[in-house]
Amino acid sequence: MTHLRRWAGCALAAALAACSKAETTGTGPDTTGVRLVATVPVPANYGQHDEFLRAGLAFLCSWNTGLQIYDVGDGRAGGSPQNPQFISRVVTAGGEVHNAWWYWAPDGQKRYVFVGQEGPGAIGSSSSGDIHVVDVSNLSAPVEVASYHMAGAGTHNFWVDEANQILYAAYYNGGVVALDVSGTLSGDLSSRLISQIQPGGAGDTYVWGVMLFNGSLYASDMLSGFWQLGLVHDTLRVLGGGNNVPERYGSDLWVANGYAYTGTWGTRAAVLGNAVKIWKLDSAGAPLLHDSIVTPGFTTVSDVRVSADGRLLVFSGEYGPSAGIYFYGLVADPGHPAFIAYYPLVTNNQNGIHTVTISDIGGRRYVFAAEDPPTPAMLVLDVTAISP
Amino acid sequence: MLVAGALAPLPLGAQVSLGAQITPVLTRADPVPGGSSLTELRFTSPLLYGTVDVLGARVRFHVTLDGEGWTMPHGELATGDFGEGWEDRRHPHTWAHELLVSATDLPLLPGGVHWSLTAGKGFAPYGTDDPMMRPALIFPVNHHWAQILERALAILGARGGPVTLEGAIFNGDEPERWDQWPNWRRFGDSWSARALVQASAAVELQASYAHVKSPENRAGAGPDQDKVSVSARLERPLGAGRIYGLAEWAYNAEAAGFFKFYSGLAEAQWSRAAHRVYLRLERTDRPEDQRVFGNPFRTVRPLLESSIIGITRWLVATGGYGRALTPARLPVHVEGIAEAEYAHVTRLTGLFDPAAQYGRNDLWMFSVALRIAAGGPMHRMGRYGVAAGGGPSAMGHMEGMD
């Protein structure tokens, strides 16, 4: 069932977004219970794209500025969410640092950060950009040690099966790739390829993101919809879903509570990518469309996250007067999220927030967000007060 | 008109040539993005232009001021056109369109070789003449493949016999607004070179290459462009009239060749007394960027990332007729122009679907205009120093009724 959710505050929120740009220094708007506690400016080269948070460290994917490591609660540099402290920076080959994953191996090693490079692409048809492996044994002096290149396609978002030491990478027109990341990583990783699949088939595959949940690998394909995949005897196979979002292009995904939440992107035959699709997973894990959140006033749901406790859904809206961050509760019914708050942020009268990441630090809940140019920055929002 | 005059001597031995023009254009585009039609009146190319020569023309100041930021801040309907954050509308040019000074033969070199140094803001030595100085009203699709305009630049030129060579450094960033200056910190991050051969009195051959760093991301984070242009230009009397022709081919490789865009264009004009007819044929590949929310004519700036949403191919035929409405002896010249354009657009790659964008793949434009000019003829914009000897623009010969 799909219905248009017109929450009561929408018009007010859109009006707020249209006439104001959130302050990026000091304390931001607190009317929704979301409190801006820090802003980390990033050079406009192009700017801030994504963040990976783990154990009080923030890995900022800052495009041509590179991968930046900040202490936001780890303590080694005296940092906190309110006062992020820079530790180090590395520019991987080619720059265009798009996403990252700090890999904790089952033997306890925390040596590698996988970095995705997003090179040029014609969306829907072609892409470029490699996976870079950065050795962070010395967090103060990270160094690139390995990379993976696929001819004719470029990587996008990752998920790592750390127990089994497998990196799953969305690869746009290349589909989904599974890489063996066990042991020491060095040089060309092409021999580490386990399997690759184009779930929509050649010409109808452009995978944005992947996520592992309950043994299935879920993939959001911009062209062919939301898929359930599995690595069966070292071969990626389609297990369910697919060809199920014909009216919009897909974007990011998150799976929690037996439900999946997928974003949408851009404009497809005049239909805006302003929907979050809600999927109920059946007993075999196959996704069935259950509901949708459609938000007027922006063009793309650029990121979707659920908190670790499964209680808070956060997504970012981009390109439009209602761009910003949206918060929904999942406690009462994760199949029908309940609107909590909207944090408006519209830069340059169009852009907004490109990505959001939820992290619980020191007993409080924070959302780290990438603010688009012309004033790119990583924003740190304390959302404890609104978290269900 | 504001100023009229041509090559008037000044007390200090300087000579000044001034002119001005404006072109009210009524255009109907059917369809525009969204599938409907749209009719608009725009006052295009309100120009105040001139040159000031001193030291026997060995030092020349070029000035072209463009008021489109005031007269058409929302652009001009031009189906297929793109650039500077606009789609299917031509962007208003920056108000300081040309502000340059050229020094020629200072000092004089032996062996009949002439040289010049030019600095200021204007056109990089690359490609063909700006469409503003060519026969058709509506700009071709390939404007940003075939010209590099509105840059802070320094040009070194040399001419020996029929051959002119130019090399320049400039800033790669293109303007985002009509009132924006080049990003001075990026001066010198891009370069171009052009060779001109005056094969005969009537025929000019041109070949040029440019490397432009991140033209669409002002901070410099976007993909670079490598550009090639070759052309042949003809202009000569033909019987009791004149004939003008241009054939050009342009190639634009972006992101080290990840994206490749091609353009071929041929145009011709025949004029006699008060009448002229012209025809332009073009095939050009266009990049498609994400449109701004609620405005299908604008794209998101600054660009994020390095991707596009597709490439389309445009086949365009443009024809028109112009007739001078004022006697040649008057200081103000008025020409009436009627023009029709047909375009067929197809998708080459990516998500962008022109049939969904426009409702169909065949698009029409009709325009009527009055071109009003006074003063001296417009110089060939983009030709400075030793390259400025090619005479006035194709439109500089607009004749009046006898």
Count of the separate structural domains of chain B: 1
Overall helicity of chain A: under 10%
**Biggest β-sheet strands, sense, barrel of chain A:** 5 strands, mixed
CATH superfamily of chain A: YVTN repeat-like/Quinoprotein amine dehydrogenase
Strand order of the largest sheet of chain B: 2-3-4-7-8-9-10-11-12-13-14-15-16-19-20-21
Outline the fold blueprint:
The complex is a heterodimer of chains A (388) and B (402).
Chain A: H1 10-19, E1 35-41, E2 50-54, E3 57-61, E4 67-71, E5 85-90, E6 97-103, E7 112-117, E8 131-135, E9 143-148, E10 158-161, E11 166-170, E12 176-180, E13 187-188, E14 193-197, E15 207-213, E16 216-221, E17 225-232, E18 235-241, E19 249-256, E20 259-265, E21 267-268, E22 271-272, E23 275-281, E24 287-294, E25 300-306, E26 312-318, E27 324-329, E28 338-344, E29 353-361, E30 364-371, E31 377-382
Parallel strand pairs in A: 9-13
Antiparallel strand pairs in A: 1-31, 2-3, 3-4, 4-5, 6-7, 7-8, 8-9, 10-11, 11-12, 12-14, 15-16, 16-17, 17-18, 19-20, 20-23, 21-22, 23-24, 25-26, 26-27, 27-28, 29-30, 30-31
Chain B: E1 5-9, E2 15-30, E3 38-54, E4 59-66, H1 68-71, E5 76-83, E6 86-90, E7 96-104, E8 113-122, H2 143-146, E9 151-160, E10 163-170, E11 190-198, E12 203-212, E13 225-238, E14 241-254, E15 259-272, E16 275-288, E17 291-292, E18 295-299, E19 310-324, E20 332-350, H3 354-358, E21 362-375
Antiparallel strand pairs in B: 1-2, 2-3, 2-21, 3-4, 4-7, 5-6, 7-8, 8-9, 9-10, 10-11, 11-12, 12-13, 13-14, 14-15, 15-16, 16-19, 17-18, 19-20, 20-21
